[in-house]
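Q: Can I see a sequence and its folded structure?
A: Here is a first one.
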Amino acid sequence: MDRTSILGDTIDYVNELTERIKTLEEEIGATPEELNLLNTRKNFSSGSSEEMPTRNSTKFVIEKQGDGEMRIDICCATSPGVLISTVSALEVLGLEIEQCVVSCFGDFAMQASCSQEEGRSRVTRTDEIKQALFTSAGYGGRCL
């Protein structure tokens, strides 16, 4: 293929993708601004209309899945030792991590499947687990 046909194929493909985006927007009934796909916000404080990247919101989600098993989803600001303190908090609570995915790119994020360790007292309340993880991540006081 010569350069002209490669360029022509590329233009056709970009047009096809643009149409696909429009179709998907129509299906969900939202505009690109409403979706905020780039996770940005307008910088109104400086008087300019430039967009600035924003951080993900802090979240600590604990879901019981039956028979002592639970799913833990954490997203918070990265700080030194947050992974170690989180794993230590789970250990103190008698929860054993069965599967875990961790990301420290930008923010700290962790998704884990845990089960109650055999022979350990059961922590039955998700709000107790949430509070322990909230504190171990360096947030003082009560979590929301």
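Q: Show me another, different protein.
A: A second, unrelated one:
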Amino acid sequence: MSDPDSTPSPEPQRTIKIIFISDYICSFCYIGNKSLRDAITGCHDLNVRFDVEFRPFALLCQSSQAEQAKANGGKLPNRREYLARKFGKEQAEAKWKAVEELAQKAGLRLAEDGIVARSILAHRLAVKAYQVGGQEMQGKLNDIIFEAVFADCKDISDIEFLAEAAEKVGLMDKTEATAFLQDTDCKGCVDKMIDAARASGVSGVPSIIIDGKWALNGVQSTECYLQILRKIAQAPSTPNAACSAACMTEGTPIIPVHS
């Protein structure tokens, strides 16, 4: 017989895993990172915990960077030149105008130009940060790297810059970080994550997988992320219920992930 004065135990907090596949040279990933974080803050009243893990993707292969540098007198290409070569001048300008509008809405700094550099070293550091300090440490590192690319026009393939970033977030000191970056630690892990993303059909970023069930492709507004996260968080943790909740968000390209 139960005690009528007893109060029911609170339900255990549910954890919703979010995998954010991105590349640091992707402007939409820069914006999506901020929009998603703001949306998670907007779910503070729910009895859920979000665990966000950024995983790597490579938009720029080693050979293409070498070709770009060769065409640019040995220097890394600037962003406007890179986009013009890739899309044509007119389309590149239209795309960048859309980026500027989204960045302004998200409250992000955005320089007019920047350096396009391979991000593999940065990805290795980010994977290590998640292994050591979880989403909090990885998130701080992400902010530093994204701002370096899009606000401060820095070369994120530069070991000294990355070593300083590692020290700032408490991952390791500069000497340790330099040795880490000059070695091959976490390279195999990064390569496997990129290969796995491509094998699952990811061809562009950002690509977000929520709770292992739902994929959301392309950058979305904070409002869109918030609506999706709240509906998934409030639904029973079953695939069909999550589907019903997610599909209530009209016009959002969210699809089930098939195992």
